[in-house]
Amino acid sequence: MTKRWIPKIEPDNLIVENIASAINVNKTLSGILVQRGIQTFESARKFFRPQYSELHDPFLMLGMDAAIERIEKAIASNEKILIYGDYDVDGTTAVATVFHFFKNRYPNMDYYIPDRYNEGYGVSVKGIDWAKNNGFSLIIALDCGIKAVDRVKYAKENGIDFIICDHHLPGDTIPDAAAVLNPKQANCNYPFKELSGCGIGFKLVQAYANKHNIPFAEVEQFIDLVAISISSDLVPIMDENRIMVHFGLKKLKSNPNKGIKALLDTYVEKPEYGVSDVVFFIGPRINAAGRIADAKDSVRLMISDNIETAKKIAELVNQHNTERREFDIIITEEAFQMISNDVEFSNKKSTVLFNKEWHKGVIGIVASRLIEKYYRPTIVLTESNGIASGSARSVDGFDLYSAIEECSDLLEQYGGHTHAAGLTLKLENVKPFSDKFEKIVSAKIVERSLTPEIEYDAEITLKAITPKFFNILKQFAPFGPGNQNPIFRSKSVWDVGDVMKVGNNHLKMSITQGEGSRIYKAIAFNLGEYYEKVAQGISFDICYTIEENYYNGHTNLQLNIKDILFKN
What is the DSSP string of 482-549? Predict the structure, then answer.
């Protein structure tokens, strides 16, 4: 797929020079910092040296006082408390965090994860009925509930209060709960709006600990789970999230949660872990339990205090992930085939596919695969319990959630973000929804959003990549939304003669730029179509990130090439 290469806007030269001088870095790196809003010595200090002391006061969050008071009342009255969370990584890490913290202080608790297939996303009537039948009078809902107006009302009618801890966009009406924690709700003055669901659960725990003089170490023990949720849920890694991911990744290496350690024991040994290790290894395994079997397996893994028990659960979770990969491969191929058979597809601005046989647990992954190949707003639907259930993914610059909301007259339920969402609808509405969604996308999407962009931070020569340059660049991490790994452009490079195709359409190369340039190992994922030209020794431009590659105990600098551009 052709991509547009766009340079970021050059920052003010005087500010760049001032930052370069203040923190002793070269102008290329200081320019990247200024592009990211870091324009003073103090903001640079916060960026490079995150501190727990800079976490915001949890009581600044609207509803926090009421939430803590309701929990205190429940504990004083010996009420049964149910910790309820979504079945994905964010929800299960949130449940593990809040349940584990309170269970150590108050035994009259349990947790509940709705079944993806029988209950679907969010607060369910079945879950409320289970709570009622088992004598629970307080439910703490994590990573869900902000739109569960009718469900919260139903619970209240049955003698059950709710505390909602959610980070999704609120609707017009806020549920009538004992407390609602969501920085995105109106009148909430919390300084940072982009916490994950687990992050809001962590703030609840932090608030309780602060009020009851519980040492921060007992809150900090969950910071690796928060880092996993932030990384996996693709919320911006800035402000408070950057602090939590910074310390969470360190804890993953030094003293991880026992369940997570059991997973990492099957992973490659590294001197440190990054966001990509969470996104590509830990997150999919935690997610796989809810996709294939029961998400409670993931919670059991993360609340386990016994390493032997954790290893057994980790083995089960790994099996779920293997099954998930098999479904993923099969369904993705079927989706590609459906598109190739659709003669009208090339004229459409959106992709909506429905197959009642597809496994509900992997349709979100398949939607992401379709985005990678065709790059247009995408919804993949399957049948579950007599209704159509779908996952949606968007492209840069297009508000997917808003487009789905305009189709709400055809939907039973929906929720999510600008770039990702979930929805359910009656089977007879699949075709009308598909047609209406296509009309809305066609009317609103700009042509630019239908071609993927590579926005690069700076143009450099390969000889600029010195050990000092890379050592400072490493400290820009953790990388993710809001602070992506810087992308560089270098012109007129070539392979020295050992290019090879590897895996599924990838290239391994050794790249140089001539005089003064050393030879760099490089990997170019999904760019195998350039093999012939590269092998001929023709020069080309590259956009790439710089990273460390760990293999057999050795660490090497590697260019991760995002795209290749030949002059002709």
Answer: TBPPPPEEEEEEEE-S--EEETTTEEEEEEE-STT---EEEEETT-GGGHHHHHTT--EEEEEEEEEE
| Shared domain check, 512 and 485 | yes
Length of the chain measured in residues: 568
Q: Widest CA span of the chain, in angstroms?
A: 77
pLDDT-above-90 percentage for the chain: 90
Indicate the pLDDT class of residue 415, thresholds 50, 70 and 90.
confident
353 is a domain residue:
yes
Asked if 449 contacts 4 with a C-beta cutoff of 8 angstroms, the reply is no
**Are β-strands 136-142 and 161-165 bridged in parallel, bridged antiparallel, or unpaired?**
parallel
**In this structure, are residues 267 and 317 in contact, taking their beta carbons and an 8 Å threshold?**
no
Q: State which residues form the domain around 405.
A: 342-450
Domain boundary among 401, 420, 450: 450
Helix runs in 341-463, H state only? 363-374, 400-405, 430-444
Residue partners of 231: CB distance under 8 A and separation at least 6? 237, 245, 275, 278, 279, 283, 478, 480
Q: Is the pLDDT of residue 568 over 70?
A: no
Backbone angles phi, psi at 207, to 5 degrees: -65, -45
pTM: 0.92
Residue 113 pLDDT exceeds 90:
yes
What pLDDT band is residue 413 in, cutting at 50, 70 and 90? confident
Q: Tokens 């808003």 identify what position?
A: 402
For residue 84, give both structure tokens: 């309820």
CATH number, domain containing residue 389: 3.10.310.30
Q: Which ranges of 304-429 does DSSP label H, i.e. alpha helix? A: 307-340, 363-374, 400-405
Instruction: Please state, in angstroms and rounded to a whole number, the distance separating the CA atoms of residues 449 and 230.
Output: 26
Q: Are 148 and 176 in contact (CB under 8 A)?
A: no
Please name the residue that has the structure tokens 């966009």. Answer: 169
Query: What's the chain's average pLDDT?
Result: 95
Residues 458, 13: Cα–Cα separation, whole Å: 14
Using pLDDT thresholds of 50, 70 and 90, give the confidence band for residue 317.
very high
Handedness of CA 225, 83, 64, 218 (dihedral sign): negative
Whole-angstrom CA distances from 209 to 55, 57, 101, 242, 382 are 14, 12, 10, 22, 44
Phi and psi angles of residue 171, each rounded to the nearest 5 degrees, phi first: -90, -165
CA pair distance 360, 390, nearest whole angstrom: 8
Q: How many domains does the chain divide into?
A: 3
Last residue of a domain, one of 414, 435, 450: 450
Is residue 286 a contact partner of residue 89, using CB atoms and an 8 Å limit? yes
d(CA 94, CA 14): 44
- Digit-coded pLDDT (tens) for 76-86: 999 999 999 99
Per residue in 117-154, pLDDT tens?
888 788 999 999 999 999 999 999 999 999 999 999 99
Query: Alpha-carbon distance 325 to 355, whole Å?
Result: 18
CA nearest 261: which of 220, 309, 214?
309
Q: How far is CA 61 from the centre of its chain?
A: 23
Pair 309, 374 in one domain: no
Give the residues across from 112 on adjacent strands.
Answer: 84
